[in-house]
Amino acid sequence: YIREDDLAREPLLIKEGFMKVPEKPGLGIELDEEALQNYLIK
């Protein structure tokens, strides 16, 4: 399942029910392109 796979190169840190919003531009995270290939629909 997509929710079980790590699609981000760095994990999103959740502490006490809160997640720090990434500060990078765009999504704020770098996606793992190889992991995304498993979900490619042609």
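The above is record 1. Record 2 follows with the same two-line structure.
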Amino acid sequence: MASTTSNWLSTTCCRAPSWVRRQQVVLSQLLVVLAIFGLHELGLSWPGVLSVLYLETLVAVLMLARRDGLLHRAAMAGALLAGSSLLLLAASHLAASPPALLYRDAALLALTGWLSIAFIQFTAKQLAIRFSSDATPASGLLSNLLNGFAGLAGLLQVGTGALLARALFHWPGVPVAGLLAALLGLAAVAFGLAYWVRATGLLPSWVRRQQLVLTQFFLVLGIFGLHELALSWPGVLVVLYLETMVAVLLLARRDSLLHRAAMLAALAAGASLLLLASTDWHTALPALLYRDALLVALAGWASIAFMQFTYQQFSSRANAEEAATLPHPALLARLLGCFAGLAGLLQAGAGTLLARALFHWHPVPVALLIVALVALAAGAFGLSRWVRASGLAPTWVRRHLKLLELPDEVQQRVSDGDLSLTIADLLRRQTDKGSITSRQAIDLAGKVAQGDMTPAEIRATFGESSGPKAPAQVRGAFRPGDGPEPRGDDNWHDAGSTADPASREYV
């Protein structure tokens, strides 16, 4: 009745004051809220009631988007309150709930988290939001509310993982395989949401990063859950180390910040494996020493292969004659140097474990252990030949370390992507020759970054030819895939030039 009255008031010729219509809309929503709370009397749990309330409020927000800015923002605040209440209620039940209730709450949190991302996408598209430097207070408030929904969506998904992890690691007799499959499914959905956010290009880039981090979060929980299937902790850490290195390779051409974070996580996983193996070698039986030696050796060989693939990924980009360069090349070189050191320590650890079994335990298959040590030596020699034959790692690292001799201003231009690596190396060589001073190198780098001089003009100045162009397939290999570029700031993007006047007036 209140909703009908509101519609009648908005369509009459002699309209009543706007506050009367708003009064009826608010009354309508209050009555719906009372009806939703009444579902608890029909046996619906309180998390279920709050989930229904949250979804109903999201629908109300979408309906009010272009009709009443004040009520729209009030409804968004109410939806945030309902979603936060659901999250807090599920968290309060985490310690005492049996597995069945944990599964129920996890399903509700996952559903509301996914729908929150969909809601943000539809809201951004519906309103065609653009916030510039002269944004109004109302637009700033709406931006903050949408950021709040994005953060709530991430927390709801984290809560889902926490509930499933509680059931997996705390309660005996649970379906471990089913829980691991659920975590893998959550990771797949989070990755799909990240792809959707990137494809539409409506939301800030941090939302896509949030979903990618959640993908890794669910995968890490699933990997640790393998221990419940009787996989040893060294085996778990090896799987985690390999998975994180795969994530690093996948992120290399897409997100430099997450790429560096994943490299640090991989180093932490590899170092943890090495420390765990070293703590057991004094007391472990020969069978465990053999197992740990095999795992540590595999991790060391995989580290060398990872380094080679990473160098191969970036070597053509580093030498391509285009403005886009490696972000923070010195840091990347140091991180890869850490992987090289870790690879050596892992292989040395494998030899130490086998030597412990050979010289401490009796009886042991001495001949087989000697063969294993010789095989480790042959593997190390083969890897050294591979690294030398490829010629990627030493040259690439040496070149970036030489760039550290340039003034800090020039290095910053390279890190920011304003100066190509090729031109920076040219300036370094000319500075070493004494052809130019450091001050002149800074000035030339600034001219190239500002577009006052082209790279070809810089080469012509020093009598160097530009050489053959990089192949098209190499140039394009390090660009993101098809689709619009992800947002690079923390503002909400305009959905397009087709936004109707109503949405522009609202903002």
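Residues 137-170 form the longest helix (34 residues).
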